[in-house]
Design goal:
With about 80 residues, the protein is an all-beta fold. The protein contains no helices and 6 strands. It has one domain. The radius of gyration is 19 Å and the shape is elongated.
Length: about 80
């Protein structure tokens, strides 16, 4: 007696939009490239805090506040 098994594989397409920090508004949440404690590259959750002048932006990344250039790429 043969047993039949049906397997369905679902594919999902997720669109990740690449933008620059200067295209965001204060309060927008996004991800940036970062590194873990072990040195592996990872995507870090961030929030734009304020514009600091001369194309510099203050960004909060998981509790750490950093200053980034407006042309840095982010993922929305």
């Amino acid at each position: 007696m043969a047993t039949q098994v049906a397997i369905r594989i679902f594919t999902c397409s997720i669109k990740i939009k690449v933008m620059q920090v200067q295209d965001l508004k204060v309060g927008d949440k996004f991800k940036m490239n970062g590194s873990s404690v072990s040195g592996k590259l990872t995507k870090v959750k961030c929030e734009l805090i304020q514009y600091s002048g001369m194309n510099k932006y203050v960004v909060s990344c998981q509790g750490i506040t950093i200053l980034v250039d407006g042309t840095d790429e982010v993922f929305v």
